[in-house]
Design the sequence.
């Protein structure tokens, strides 16, 4: 048995197995749960990197469960192949890398951050299930399978958001909102799956893509999928759950929720590009996505400015940054049918949008972790009550500056690289869009200067005299993300050429995706 | 004509579910609204696989030549029902936690998170 052929399933199976082992281990030794989780996720991270190297050098991978060939027959002569596939191309593994890094960092950070809570075995079990759900959404090549993983991720994240609901009311309230939103989204996805199955008799993404006709029913399915996946990604005007869920979840979970939203965003792009591609009216759908982006950017940042709760403020910035991804990829979609414009600026815009997904996961994760660190030591999330913390929390201050500079798009951090790609390419499409994007970036900077000023600067406050730097494992988790941010900021060419460009091309070139699966058909 | 009745029922289920979600203010009723939509979607899936006069798709024991209903939608529906139970249980348990802290299930009063 050659294990290297089974990497795709191992990436999902190891956290899944660990998720059910953790409560058992927890019966014997409470402390071992966190270690086991970290171990499982680090194995997963290593495997994801191995798979990424393989995919970027060899090409997209398909992993088949069940019948090896679509034309397989049973001994009785019955022709009914039962097969589900994982189909991982450059875009899928790009998202997989984000998930792997974020979940590993989240587990390391949780080791001390969650220490004083009870029910930690359940916490780690759910954290692993959330990771499994995200990996599954990104790797799967089957629409129904996607629905199942979407629900796994939703259920795990709701339970984690309301984890502190035993003692407090607010987390339960946020969890309820998120649960209703995500069940509606998942059910509408299932309805769209039913529409596809009723027409084409297949559930595989690539197989549907090869026969799709863009009939009236396909339009209805598209009309169901785009809003619900945008809702799960937290785009305005369906963003009402984002600030609540992000601000009430424990900090490492908030970081993972950002990655979960981005998995939905990935699914949206997958549907639009790999499933419909040029068969749809790209200009109209592209503009719809651009408008989602504009609204998210602008409303997100204006709502963020007035917030006093540090995590709520950052959550609104998460909405705002999602807008950049919508903008970049939307511009790419709008010119999809026009090869000249696509080569001139469409691909660059999409590179910016896709690169921003990874950058956002890193710097927003880092910012949420610093907010968690502040909460860990001061016990408050209210900016008005904080102050002078730079005196006693030096590392956290440095990490916050790195994160804030990256989100505001200052060089040499990674936010600058992806935002510059978006500005210059979107300017050629429509100058106004680019100008709005820049204004939003300036407002973002203004808002983070305010946070920095009120939380870190000023004299040392008497009530925070006892405050000291957070424990080493939390510093390590934040340092990992900071290093990635600086590395991406210093060598953006390297990342864009080797990681982002293949991802964009695998979205644009539909045949590359469908060919992997249908080659043997 | 009569074959389309299940689809009418699907529309009624989902319509009622969306109405409940939008206009009812009780958290338990919102949970019921989600369940209604879920039932509508499940009914839609199972109707897709229905063939008139067909038998259950048990291949090993089927008389030859007899039409069978499609097995895949049934498998999908079964999975979806199981997931639905998990979601419903979770919604209701969160509603229970909310009641414990707020002392009410009215959405107008469960509003500490705003702005």
Sequence:
């Amino acid at each position: 048995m050659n294990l290297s052929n089974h990497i795709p399933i191992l990436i999902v199976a190891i956290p899944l197995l660990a998720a059910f082992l953790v409560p058992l281990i927890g019966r014997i030794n409470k402390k071992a749960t966190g270690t086991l989780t970290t171990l499982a996720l680090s194995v997963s991270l290593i495997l994801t990197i191995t798979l990424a190297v393989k995919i970027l050098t060899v090409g997209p991978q398909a992993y088949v469960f069940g019948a090896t060939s679509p034309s397989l027959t049973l001994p009785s002569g019955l022709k009914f192949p039962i097969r589900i596939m994982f189909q991982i191309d450059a875009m899928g593994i790009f998202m997989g890398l984000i998930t792997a890094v974020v979940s590993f960092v989240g587990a390391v950070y949780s080791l001390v951050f969650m220490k004083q809570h009870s029910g930690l075995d359940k916490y780690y079990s759910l954290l692993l299930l959330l990771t499994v759900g995200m990996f599954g959404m990104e790797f799967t090549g089957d629409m129904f399978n996607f629905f199942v993983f979407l629900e796994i991720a939703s259920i795990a994240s709701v339970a984690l958001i309301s984890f502190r609901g035993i003692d407090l009311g607010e987390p339960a309230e946020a969890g309820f909102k998120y649960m209703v939103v995500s069940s509606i989204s998942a059910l509408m996805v299932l309805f769209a799956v039913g529409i596809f199955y009723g027409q084409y008799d297949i559930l595989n993404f690539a197989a549907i893509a090869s026969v799709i006709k863009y009939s009236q029913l396909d339009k209805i399915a598209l009309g169901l999928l785009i809003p619900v996946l945008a809702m799960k990604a937290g785009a305005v005007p369906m963003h009402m759950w984002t600030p609540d869920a992000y601000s009430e979840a424990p900090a490492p979970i908030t970081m993972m929720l950002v990655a979960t939203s981005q998995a939905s965003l990935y699914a949206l792009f997958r549907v639009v590009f790999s499933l419909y591609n040029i068969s749809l009216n790209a200009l109209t759908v592209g503009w719809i996505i651009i408008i989602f982006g504009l609204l998210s950017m602008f409303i997100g940042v204006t709502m963020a400015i007035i917030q006093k709760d540090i995590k709520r403020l950052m959550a609104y910035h998460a909405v705002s940054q999602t807008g950049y991804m919508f903008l970049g990829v939307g511009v790419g979609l709008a010119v999809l049918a026009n090869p000249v414009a696509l080569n001139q600026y469409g691909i660059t815009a999409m590179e910016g949008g896709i690169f921003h997904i990874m950058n956002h996961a890193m710097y927003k994760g880092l910012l949420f972790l610093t907010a968690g660190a502040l909460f860990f030591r001061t016990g408050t999330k209210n900016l008005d009550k904080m102050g002078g913390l730079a005196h006693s929390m030096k590392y956290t201050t440095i990490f916050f500056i790195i994160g804030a500079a990256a989100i505001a798009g200052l060089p040499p951090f990674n936010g600058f690289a992806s935002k510059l790609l978006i500005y210059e390419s979107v300017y050629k499409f429509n100058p106004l869009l680019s100008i709005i994007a820049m204004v939003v970036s300036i407002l973002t900077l203004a808002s983070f200067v305010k946070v920095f000023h009120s939380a870190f600067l000023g004299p040392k406050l008497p009530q925070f005299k006892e405050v000291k730097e957070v424990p080493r494992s939390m510093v390590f988790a934040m340092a990992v993300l900071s290093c990635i941010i600086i590395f991406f900021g210093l060598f953006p060419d390297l990342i864009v050429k080797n990681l982002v460009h293949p991802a964009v091309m695998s979205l644009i070139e539909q045949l590359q995706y469908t060919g992997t699966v249908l080659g043997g058909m | 004509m009569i074959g389309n009745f299940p689809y009418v029922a699907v529309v009624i289920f989902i319509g009622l579910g969306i109405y409940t979600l939008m206009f009812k203010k009780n958290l338990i009723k919102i949970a019921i609204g989600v369940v209604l939509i879920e039932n509508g979607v499940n009914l839609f899936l199972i109707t897709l696989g229905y063939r008139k006069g067909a038998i259950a798709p048990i291949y090993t024991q089927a008389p030859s030549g007899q039409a069978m209903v499609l097995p895949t939608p049934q498998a999908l529906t079964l999975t979806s029902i199981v997931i639905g139970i998990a979601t419903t249980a979770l919604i209701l348990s969160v509603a229970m936690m909310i009641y414990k802290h707020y002392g009410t299930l009215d959405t107008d009063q469960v509003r500490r998170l705003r702005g």
Notes: The mean pLDDT of chain A is 91. The first helix of chain A runs from residue 7 to 28. Residues 281-490 of chain A form one domain. Chain A touches chain B through 42 residues (CB under 8 Å).
